[in-house]
Amino acid sequence: MFPNSFEYIAPTTLTETIELLQRHGYDAKVLAGGQSLLPMMKLRVAAPPILIDINGIDELKGWREENGFLRIGALVRHSELEHADELRARYPLLAETAVWIADPLVRNLGTVCGSLAHADPASDWGAAMLALHAQVEAIGPGGKRQIPIDDFFVDTFTPALEETEIATAVLIPTPAGRTAGRYLKIERKAGDFAIAGLAIHVSIASDGTVAEAGFGICACGPIPLRGKRAEEYLLGKKLTPETIEAVSRLVPEDADPTDDLRGSAEYKRDVLRVFAKRGLSDIAKELQGEVVLR
Amino acid sequence: MKIRVRVNGQTYESDVEPRKLLVYYLRDDLGLTGTHVGCDTTSCGACTVLLDGKAVKSCTVLAVQANGCDVMTVEGLERDGQLHPLQTAFWEEHGLQCGYCTPGMLMSGYALLQTNPHPSEEEIRRGISGNLCRCTGYMNIVKAIRSAAVKLADASAEPSKEVAASGSSSD
Amino acid sequence: MAVRQTELRPLGKSVGRKEDPRFIRGKGRYLDDISLPGMLYMCLVRSPYAHARIKSIDTSAALQAPGVKLVITGEDLAAMNLAWMPTMANDQQMVLATGKVLFQYQEVAAVIAETREQAEDAAQLVYVEYEPLPVVVDPFKALESDAPILREDREQKSNLIFHWEAGDKEATEELFRNAPVVVKQDVRFPRVHPSPLEPCGCIADYNSATGKLTWYVTSQAPHAHRTVLSLVSGLPEHQIRVISPDVGGGFGNKVPVYPGYVCAIVASLKLGKPVKWIETRTENTTSTGFARDYHMTAEIAAEEDGRVLALRVKTIADHGAFDAAADPSKFPAGLFSIVTGSYDFKEAFVEVDGVYTNKAPGGVAYRCSFRVTEAAYLIERVMDVLARRVGVDPAELRRRNFIRKEQFPYKSPTGWTYDSGDYEKTLALALEKIGYEQLRKEQAEKRARGELMGIGISTFTEVVGAGPSHTFDIMGIKMFDSAQIRVHPTGKVIARLGVRHQGQGHETTFAQIIAEELGLSTDDVIVEEGDTDTAPYGLGTYASRSTPTAGGAAALCARRIREKAKKIAAHLLEVGEDDVVFDGVGFSAKGLASRTVTMKDIAFAAYTNVPEGMEPGLEATYYYDPPNLTFPHGAYIAVVDIDKGTGAVKVRRFLAVDDCGTVINPMIVEGQVHGGLTEGFAIAFMQDIPFDEDGNCLATNWMDYLVPTALDTPKWETDRTVTPSPHHPIGAKGVGESPNVGSPAAFVNAVVDALAPLGVEHIDMPIYPWKVWKILREHGVTE
């Protein structure tokens, strides 16, 4: 199977890229990791006349911490976050999530931002970024803007990016206090899209109460969803068997799954409940100093 | 579109259509048919090659994206008529049957050992989880990669040996 | 680990594979690696509808697209009388659709262009106007009187393809009437696909000057394909050369002749150029030979202690739009009547109804001896239902019912004569090795804590090696197989066989048989298969038949060489022929071990110094018509744990004890077992090709047809017992398929065993986590 014919352009600056997007509009597609786009083009589900390869734009590479955020550039591959030991303590959810995405070969090319911009309802990163309360940075002809992750997923495969805009980074607020994260996913086989996925981010204040709580759900709705009720409940409370139990019942309430070949809606909701309980129990143990073997 | 790619140490200059996938560039333009195609959906990994040292599925990379890059295929494993220890291990441990997935498995195994010279069984299974095999049930592939890791460790303890040199040459 | 190829007496040793050096270097030569001068590429246009009338096909835009040389439609083929082709099951199948399409992804037109990309681009420009028709997906509904009749080309007024029976109906009924215990279970074997890593394809290369067609094709049965092709096309058989190069896995998928093959040949005939067609994965999954899709109901009549009396089975077999099952002619339901398995049933009666539906054709023997997998799965599953009902441990129930060692050769109630077996011994070894009693104790403790652990047993018997010519033929061609051995003057041997390996290691195992018989090392023997111009006629590699048939041919052919060698040895040793003894390495004069000649000496003499009156040279051909089939068996045990929260099943342990008779190469046998178990695991837990009510295929490629990765696959434990086949020349039985045939029941039995405290008696495959979860919730089990 082969993609359609297209014109290939590889700009080296963002300015050039924006100009190209302005010139070609809907006809142009941005190629970063290509691990979703190229298979779609091979299957001819997508057939863009113009392909703008951004892999040569240096300013989109790498991650760094600045202004209270971890800034993950648009060309950061999944595998970079999987193996970034420096990030493990403060952003544990990143490596936790990365390892669940497809397989090591795909992770070597696929990008975090590309995955978000693809806006797949089963996006593992979608769930993780919701849990981390991230923002997507986009640049277009009008300049730069930050889009809160809650506003970023408009609909299935539809991100809040203008035709002339490009996602340049995802920004994750640096957590205060001790932090733990879990990504729980059930899949039909290793590397498959999720049947249901739940990303959990918790940081606790010095008094042991929850200072930050994030729950991101994927594959259980038209877009990745926030476990809002659970977050609101947990803030300021301590992680106890009772609060964990309560949260585990709240998480499914924010999910909106459907019956499909991956199981019934009822099943997916219940798995989210089980995941919330397991994930938080693990996190509670970890934050209380116990090493959790996984 | 003109591209310049270094494949297994040799530089090629070619004119390719932008839509040409790297795997077909290697197979049809360069005659390196060891890299195989098994699916349409980036699922099977039969097309695995090293692109600038990283294992990727060459059916999901455009040849033009490899412009200026270093590519290593299964044909690049053997050096001066000497099989790479990974190749020998696949032979000795019966790590292949029909042979179709084998080049991709070898390249994933090679990439894994580059970053993790002493992988556990679990790490090997994770490392080759992007490569499907329909014949072996993976048992002997895992065994072969472990055995190669041991051989490479022994060889690198004696740096003068050939295998030590070829073990890190794709970087 | 493999041993060296230079050893003498190689039979039974783990000799390193001779085929590997090319594969590990990327120097295998698979179909798509072949490129011929001036070669064109073909792409097929396929139907988006499962059932629709074709109102019109407009090829004009495609014909004007860059590089396009030819577009073929069904009407073009009809003009050549090639719109339909015969299937191996005595049905016919459309090559390119005329009138209407009968399944989604059916072949409608072929586009031939200068490059692959051009062919694919132009295929999108073939405009077909369809008028959708009512779709029949459910085979039970297909049999209802008001169902639309799918096949207009057949005169029949229903969608029934065949009704087939085996066993004694009356005698079976009689036993059921008086039986103290009767159990009944509906069991579905889902539609699955062999999915070899290399898809199917071919290059047709017709030379108009010589009139010869060279056809490179991914074929498990090149000779059979040549004959079929000759019959279909009218081309003389000696003007067709079929070359099956290295085959990247087959598992039954590369046995049938597919429409794309015929189209490529027609295109080459028309254009006088080589035409290559390589299927995409999607095309492979959606249109080529699927397997199974059996809806079975089994009943066992038994005594109160679980001793079985009779078996009654009724099956609806969904064959799709065309009956393209690759079964021997006399067996429309394959060898399904082996369904009494390892147990001494007094009577049995088996019925199978084959049905047309709007799905892809097939019913191939997927790593299976023609429907043996369905049979083994059914009996092993229902024996567990019986065990539960009578309250006897499943291992003990099997033991009570085994055909005993002294009963062989055993005549089964459905007419098979089992050659040999020792089921007790194999099961005993398996139970001991896995620590069965200990596991049952652990299970009891876990159950007390509310944990779900299951142990599943399968003690299956297979029937393989089709087969004896009195019973087995495909389209009239008897199913013997062949070997031809040439010993060159320096003692180096080339052997050619009628089968075609796809990973089984024939280049090594057949070399071992021949080397053993001739006193050589495997290094001295090259095995070649897959070229009909050079290899003797044979029916190919599938249904675990290579070792039982061609393996027998190889041994007997070598013995024919040895007979002549013995005469030459007598001449060289200057003794009478009766005074020459062969010790496996050389020939010596009786009582004079020091006077020895080797096969190498004899080979040289065969061309330089033969006794007066003897024909020079040293070669032989042997067509081996086996006297019976072989009956490998095994005892498999699976141990599983179930996650109560998600319903996920973890296979903690799996032990396979196989008995395939004489073992030629233990390393290769073990490798075959690992691979077969993995496919059995996939079938039990992952693989299915479902359709929606409009006939849309819902698992079209490896995104949704799930092939397990190294992370999903359990770790396999293996062992074996050896009960040689009394009739096979070296006592071998074939093993490639046993693990795929025997394992699904062990997995399912283990899961059902884990859920048994809830009263669960059966779950259909594939056992997805949400199915288990649903059962757990229905019984109030939750985390």
Automatic annotation (TrEMBL), chain A:
| Keyword tags | FAD, Flavoprotein, Oxidoreductase
Q: Does the keyword Flavoprotein apply?
A: yes
The UniProt entry, under SMART domains, shows:
CO_deh_flav_C (SM01092)
The UniProt record lists the FAD-binding PCMH-type domain at 1-177
The keyword Zinc is annotated on this UniProt entry: no
Against InterPro entries, the record matches this protein to:
CO_DH_flav_C, CO_DH_flav_C_dom_sf, Diverse_Substr_Oxidored, FAD-bd_PCMH, FAD-bd_PCMH-like_sf, FAD-bd_PCMH_sub1, FAD-bd_PCMH_sub2, Mopterin_DH_FAD-bd
Quote the PROSITE patterns the UniProt record gives: FAD_PCMH (PS51387)
Pfam short name (any one): FAD_binding_5
Q: Which domain of life is it from?
A: Bacteria
Record's protein name: Xanthine dehydrogenase family protein subunit M
The organism is Polycladomyces zharkentensis
TrEMBL record, chain B:
Q: Does the keyword Iron-sulfur apply?
A: yes
Task: Tell me which UniProt keywords the record has, alphabetically.
Answer: 2Fe-2S, Iron, Iron-sulfur, Metal-binding, Oxidoreductase
Cited Pfam families? Fer2 (PF00111), Fer2_2 (PF01799)
Q: Where is the 2Fe-2S ferredoxin-type domain?
A: 1-77
Check the record and name the PANTHER family matching this protein.
OXIDOREDUCTASE WITH IRON-SULFUR SUBUNIT (PTHR44379:SF5)
State what protein this is by name: (2Fe-2S)-binding protein
Source organism per entry reads Polycladomyces zharkentensis
TrEMBL record, chain C:
UniProt xrefs under InterPro entries? Ald_Oxase/Xan_DH_a/b, Ald_Oxase/Xan_DH_a/b_sf, Ald_Oxase/xanthine_DH-like, AldOxase/xan_DH_MoCoBD1, AldOxase/xan_DH_MoCoBD2, AldOxase/xan_DH_Mopterin-bd_sf, CO_Mo_DH_lsu
Which top-level enzyme class is recorded in the Swiss-Prot or TrEMBL entry? oxidoreductase
For region Disordered, the annotated ranges are 718-737
Q: GO molecular-function annotation terms?
A: anaerobic carbon-monoxide dehydrogenase activity
Sorted keywords for this record are: Molybdenum, Oxidoreductase
Q: Where are the transmembrane segments?
A: none
What positions does the domain Aldehyde oxidase/xanthine dehydrogenase a/b hammerhead occupy? 25-134
Q: What is its EC number?
A: 1.2.7.4
Domain of life, source organism:
Bacteria
The record's SMART domains line, in alphabetical order, gives: Ald_Xan_dh_C
Q: NCBIfam families, from UniProt?
A: CO_dehy_Mo_lg
Record protein name field: Carbon-monoxide dehydrogenase large subunit
Its source organism is Polycladomyces zharkentensis
